[in-house]
């Protein structure tokens, strides 16, 4: 089996973290979150709380990433801590739910916004969403360097309109009053229900950073650069999200934001005029496109890593690299096909809620794994140790448990479907190990 080259730098890793995370959720989840909270204070609080949970999670995962800087990322960490069965089920959930659902959900967002911006004569966004997915697959088919270059470019382009929007809002002399305290919610639901459902929606906007571990085999000095990319990227993203959503709330009355997917466009239009609204929407399209590209980059490495470890049927098919670009083209195609199927079957919110729910189940196991490894392998080389241990992993575990328990109570059907899809990998696991 051919080995992937170490050709990615810290800049590429940081661009992948921020470029993958900052996507459609940054601009469109505000509509869902305000519909759940009916409050400016609770809306901003869940963005901050989600950022804190993501940062505590990142501090934990950074220790595991530095200790096991190899292809496979979180699946590799779980295998070292719990064995092959748990790691396989997580890998299985990633390749059939997490990555395809991310690609499909963001492709739907991209297509919907492109139709609105360009006034395309399309009643259904599905054909354009599929075309968008195919174009991303082609970019990744051309190789790591080209897809990495696209990721850096889209990150720069997507950050510019965000910063312009934030600055324009902060200097606005007639802002809408934003109440930060006390934390309140609308009368349509309980405080805990509003908080939990809004937090689940918010966490999608922070999702994607965990997959940077999949690129460890291609990253220069992975033990140090993985840690820097995860922690630095998450801190920067949290600050950007808080300021961006404050901009929305300072510019438009809350009743114009609730359930309104055009919040970002209307905000830019009010602050910058009609031309500004169109330019920002174009920036949003580039942002979402870059996020899809990031999920393709990291997602295609997961079937490859599992194939290389003989964890999937037809393992050699998934572990095959292109002789020219050294890309796992078969794995890339596999993920693309599932994503296209999901484009037909799901909506943005249902797809994103399911992938966040399943991801956090296994994330809790990873946080617990930091304690297990400290106890069972005290002599393991750890180039980085979790800051604030043991408080940091405890906070990450509590945050994850809150998300899982409340989601199971408030959205039982979503939880059951996600769990069943994950457990569908058990027959394949036993067959492969027969």
Automatic annotation (TrEMBL):
<dbReference type="InterPro" id="IPR050598">
    <property type="entry name" value="AminoAcid_Transporter"/>
</dbReference>
<feature type="transmembrane region" description="Helical">
    <location>
        <begin position="191"/>
        <end position="213"/>
    </location>
</feature>
<dbReference type="Pfam" id="PF13520">
    <property type="entry name" value="AA_permease_2"/>
</dbReference>
<feature type="transmembrane region" description="Helical">
    <location>
        <begin position="330"/>
        <end position="348"/>
    </location>
</feature>
<feature type="transmembrane region" description="Helical">
    <location>
        <begin position="47"/>
        <end position="68"/>
    </location>
</feature>
<feature type="transmembrane region" description="Helical">
    <location>
        <begin position="89"/>
        <end position="110"/>
    </location>
</feature>
<feature type="transmembrane region" description="Helical">
    <location>
        <begin position="386"/>
        <end position="407"/>
    </location>
</feature>
<dbReference type="InterPro" id="IPR002293">
    <property type="entry name" value="AA/rel_permease1"/>
</dbReference>
<feature type="transmembrane region" description="Helical">
    <location>
        <begin position="413"/>
        <end position="431"/>
    </location>
</feature>
<keyword id="KW-0812">Transmembrane</keyword>
<feature type="transmembrane region" description="Helical">
    <location>
        <begin position="153"/>
        <end position="171"/>
    </location>
</feature>
<feature type="transmembrane region" description="Helical">
    <location>
        <begin position="225"/>
        <end position="244"/>
    </location>
</feature>
<keyword id="KW-0472">Membrane</keyword>
<protein>
    <submittedName>
        <fullName>Amino acid permease</fullName>
    </submittedName>
</protein>
<feature type="transmembrane region" description="Helical">
    <location>
        <begin position="279"/>
        <end position="297"/>
    </location>
</feature>
<feature type="transmembrane region" description="Helical">
    <location>
        <begin position="122"/>
        <end position="141"/>
    </location>
</feature>
<feature type="transmembrane region" description="Helical">
    <location>
        <begin position="354"/>
        <end position="374"/>
    </location>
</feature>
<keyword id="KW-1133">Transmembrane helix</keyword>
């Amino acid at each position: 089996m051919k080995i992937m080259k170490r050709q990615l730098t810290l800049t590429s890793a940081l661009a992948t973290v921020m470029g993958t995370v900052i996507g459609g959720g940054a601009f469109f989840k505000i509509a869902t979150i305000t519909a759940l909270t009916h409050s400016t204070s609770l809306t901003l609080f869940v963005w901050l709380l989600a950022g804190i949970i993501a940062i505590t999670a990142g501090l934990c995962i950074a220790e595991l990433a530095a200790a096991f800087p190899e292809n496979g990322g979180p699946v590799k960490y779980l295998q070292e801590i719990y064995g092959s069965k748990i790691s396989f089920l997580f890998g299985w959930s990633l390749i059939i739910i997490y990555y395809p659902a991310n690609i499909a959900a963001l492709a739907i967002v991209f297509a919907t916004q492109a139709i609105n911006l360009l006034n395309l004569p399309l009643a259904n966004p599905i054909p354009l969403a599929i075309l968008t997915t195919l174009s991303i697959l082609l970019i990744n088919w051309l190789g790591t360097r080209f897809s990495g270059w696209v990721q850096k470019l889209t990150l720069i382009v997507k950050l510019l309109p965000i910063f312009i929007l934030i600055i324009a809002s902060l200097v606005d002399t007639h802002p809408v009053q934003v109440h930060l305290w006390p934390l309140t919610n609308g009368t349509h639901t309980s405080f805990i229900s509003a908080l939990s459902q809004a937090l689940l929606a918010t966490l999608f906007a922070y999702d994607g950073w965990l997959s940077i571990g999949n690129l460890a085999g291609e990253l220069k000095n992975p033990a140090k650069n993985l840690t820097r990319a995860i922690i630095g990227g998450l801190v920067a993203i949290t600050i950007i999200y808080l300021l961006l959503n404050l901009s929305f709330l300072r510019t438009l009355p809350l009743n114009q934001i609730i359930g309104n997917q055009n919040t970002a466009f209307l905000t830019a239009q009010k602050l910058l005029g009609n031309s500004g609204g169109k330019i920002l929407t174009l920036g949003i399209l580039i942002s979402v496109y870059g996020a899809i590209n990031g999920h393709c980059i990291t997602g295609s490495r997961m079937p490859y890593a599992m194939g290389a470890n003989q964890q999937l049927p037809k393992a050699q098919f998934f572990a095959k690299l292109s002789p020219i670009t050294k890309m796992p083209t078969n794995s890339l195609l596999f993920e693309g096909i599932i994503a296209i199927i999901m484009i037909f079957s799901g909506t943005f919110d249902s797809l994103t809620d399911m992938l966040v729910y399943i991801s956090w189940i296994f994330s809790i196991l990873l946080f617990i794994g930091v304690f297990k490894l400290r106890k069972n392998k005290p002599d393991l080389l750890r180039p980085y140790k979790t800051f604030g241990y043991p408080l940091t992993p405890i906070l990450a575990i509590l945050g994850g448990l809150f998300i899982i328990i409340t989601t199971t109570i408030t959205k039982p059907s979503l939880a059951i479907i996600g769990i069943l899809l994950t457990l569908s990998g058990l027959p394949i696991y036993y067959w492969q190990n027969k």
